[in-house]
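Figure 2 data, in text form.
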Amino acid sequence: MFDSLEEKAAKKKARDEEQARIAAAEAAQAQSAAEERRRKAWLISAAGGAAEAKVAGDEFYECQLQVGMHAGRASFGEASGTRQVQSPAGTLMQIERIGWRLEHVDHVFMATGQTSTGRVMLSGENTAVSGVIVGIYLFRNDRSVESPSAAEPPPDFVVGS
């Protein structure tokens, strides 16, 4: 009916061990889920796609990277804009480390929107265009660099990089 002090201590120890086991299992599951998210992020990145293509033995690999953005604004009869530039050099370096050599590059401007405003004291309109500048990179497989055994992310890969 009543437990002795030893029995109470044994039951408490068993509960604590069970809670520790559950916490360890939850931590392992969270770690596994984080690693899976990291792997998926790697595979959809340009470098991850290059690794996958290298493992598959493809002869060419193409990727498109945003290298700039222009935001145009038109109001009160005037048009203006701001430009942002971002360098894809880090990504291109990762792709070459995997075993690809840059063969060809081209850039395109993709309009994403525009605004117009009537000119003040003049006829016609001022129009401001917004868009992104995309680099299209074509790589050739460098057969002198051995393919990785699997398209796994490198240890320094961080989701969002």
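Caption note: The radius of gyration is 28 Å.
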